[in-house]
TrEMBL record:
Name of protein: Branched-chain-amino-acid aminotransferase
PROSITE patterns noted in UniProt: AA_TRANSFER_CLASS_4
Reactions that this protein is recorded to catalyse: L-valine + 2-oxoglutarate = 3-methyl-2-oxobutanoate + L-glutamate; L-leucine + 2-oxoglutarate = 4-methyl-2-oxopentanoate + L-glutamate; L-isoleucine + 2-oxoglutarate = (S)-3-methyl-2-oxopentanoate + L-glutamate
Catalytic activity, EC: 2.6.1.42
Species the sequence originates in: Pieris macdunnoughi
Length: 433
């Protein structure tokens, strides 16, 4: 074949390889190798101009710590057939137990000019220096978003721009390098396209995307790391929490523990907000509750529940059905699901929507007056989880969430899932393939 035509063919294969998962899996090792060699040959024939001029260890003048990595620089190395994992059955998925065949990695080295070229590689363990700041001072952050396989077989992401924004806020707080969220979305899209057969063919499962940014500089100073690594891994998941047989959870409110405090990082998705919740959550489990209701301050204000935002539905002073959640006062994660719920329900005429301080006394009073109708938690992992009981100071507060004929939580959940799985077209859902 003339060299030009073969170059065009190889380029087409390279750009469309994500559509050929089945073909790739079925193809012989020989055929696979040929493809790889062709791609390498193509790269050799036409190296990117900036790279050609620079030895690899030299700083790249076009990339500074303030300027992002670029999707256009993305390099893809596909897993060989023998590296492809067996896909688990949907019933076995659980949450975050299985991982796909590829991952995204983007290194940052200040002395090399900042962000390096993004790479998609076969899924592999990381090698990390034992003194890396991420391991000692939790100089790290993570995100959680999902790819949904719609009824039309198209794959959608849900408001990924909001996750990117939140990542950059958390990066800033921990001295980690910031980046252009649109570029990361493009890299993640490519990763999901490559591993698209891992997006479950089911409306009760999804592909959870976990972008993570860690400080890798191996020194003990508590200062902004000179080196960092952003990676994204993918995990096919089903339900996050185990619920009671009615689908609801019981939560435990202990006023003596807090998840976050004013001026802290309760509003940032950093690992240090989650690890220290384990002891209390285990204690709650021993008492028969699935999650912890996080209170704050002398008035015992509700902040979050488990790793979710908290919502109440009650009959307000005007006799209206009111959906309420605490305001973003620095203690609360600005959840993507939280924001979507507020925006969607604001368009409904039969529900009043408010962000307001909610104290335990208020919950108890509303419940005593028979005005508390529902409570639920909301987050990317769970979507929406109804709450039917609060364990509080040796007593149980029964919340009648599961006794409602047309509960608000179910209507919201149905609306979100309809958008996410493509039953309705909506600007929140971005089709990626
Ligand atoms: C989410 O629902 O968005 C979460 O982050 C949950 C995760 C910490 C397991």
């Amino acid at each position: 074949m003339p060299i030009r035509r073969s170059k065009i063919l190889v380029k087409w294969i390279y750009e469309n390889q994500h559509k050929m998962q089945t073909l790739r899996r079925c193809s012989s090792t020989l055929r696979y190798k040929e493809l790889e060699e062709n791609v390498q040959a193509l790269e050799h024939l036409a190296p990117p101009a900036t790279e050609a001029a620079l030895p690899t260890h030299q700083p790249r003048p076009d990339i500074t710590p303030d300027v992002s990595f670029k999707y256009d620089d993305l390099k893809v190395a596909l897993a060989a057939p023998y590296q492809l994992q067996r896909k688990p059955e949907a019933v076995d998925l659980g949450f975050g137990k299985y991982f796909t065949d590829h991952m995204l990695k983007i290194h940052y080295h200040r002395e090399l000019g900042g962000w390096q070229k993004p790479e998609i590689t076969p899924f592999e363990n990381l090698t990390i220096h034992p003194a890396a700041k991420a391991l000692h001072y939790a100089v790290q952050l993570f995100e959680g978003l999902k790819a949904y396989r719609g009824v039309d077989d198209k794959i959608r992401l849900f408001r990924p721009d909001l996750n990117m924004h939140r990542m950059n806020l958390a990066a800033k707080r921990s001295g980690l390098p910031m980046f252009d969220g649109d570029e990361l979305i493009k890299c993640i899209k490519r990763l999901v396209q490559i591993d698209q057969e891992w997006v479950p063919h089911s409306e009760t499962s999804t592909l959870y995307i976990r972008p993570t940014l860690i400080g890798t500089e191996p020194t003990f100073g508590i200062v902004a790391p000179e080196s960092a690594m952003l990676f994204a891994i993918l995990s096919p998941v089903s339900a996050y929490y185990k619920t009671n047989s009615d689908g609801a959870v019981s939560i435990y409110a202990d006023p003596s523990v807090v998840r976050a405090f004013p001026g802290g990082v309760g509003n940032r998705k950093v690992g240090s907000n989650y690890g220290p919740t384990i002891e209390v959550t285990s204690h709650a489990a021993k008492l028969g509750h699935q999650q912890v209701l996080w209170l704050f301050g002398p008035n015992q204000e509700l902040t979050e529940v488990g790793a979710m935002n908290i919502f109440l539905v009650y009959i307000n002073e005007n006799g209206e059905k009111q959906l309420s959640t605490p305001p973003l006062n620095g203690l609360i994660l600005p959840g993507v699901t939280r924001r979507s719920i507020l925006e969607l329900a604001s368009q409904w005429e039969d529900v009043t929507v408010r962000e307001e301080v909610i104290t335990m006394d208020r919950v108890i009073q509303l419940n005593k007056q028979g005005r508390l109708v529902e409570m639920f938690g909301a987050g990317t992992a769970v979507v929406i989880t109804p709450i039917s009981n609060i364990g509080y100071k040796e007593t149980n507060i029964n919340v009648p969430t599961m006794e409602q004929e047309h509960p608000v939580y179910q209507r919201l959940k149905d609306t979100l899932l309809a958008i996410q799985y493509g039953h309705i077209e909506h600007p929140y859902a971005k089709i990626i393939t």
